[in-house]
Amino acid sequence: MDAAQAIADLTEISSQIESVVLLDGKGAVAGSTFADDAAATRFADAATALLDASESLREGGEALTQLEAETPEGSVFVLREGDRLIAATTVPDPTVGLVFYDLKSALRAAEDAKPKRKPRATRAKKATEAAKDDA
Amino acid sequence: MRRLTVLLAFAGGFFAVAALLRRTTGRGRERVDLYYADGSMQTLTDGSPDLARLLGLAREAIHAARA
Asked: Are both B38 and B55 inside the same structural domain?
């Protein structure tokens, strides 16, 4: 499943989530609910700034893996796994555990979609063919 | 029988008011929950010096998302 499909599934199952952005290992937008890349990048930058500011509160301690900032206007969720990150906004007073679960599932679904290394069968096949030619 | 009815009505009223209070006071809250890799969690609520700064960034993110 690619990032776009993971986000489409996420917004379909969760009515509390309003907007989502998924960043790849390089910090680039891999998928989002936004109509254009500029809006997705603006939100991603704001969410990353929130994560960085939160992380600076506990210097030298354990890494921050997820956060929720609740305001009367709605909540912001940021979740990081490895070098990938997913951020979302929700309606006010969301079901926190459920939103975290859905975001984590989407992040992992998109992670599973990463292309796997091809086996070295091609090289082995070539070696076999070369050996046949020599014989 | 009448005493039981009064008792049940009182209990029902009590729980209804309690639920209403919980719902109304729960709204409009401002807080930040931080979850760390070791499983620990930190909640910033009113009185925390860092809360205003983080909520400002959260509002920026919400406005960026809804713009």
From this structure: yes
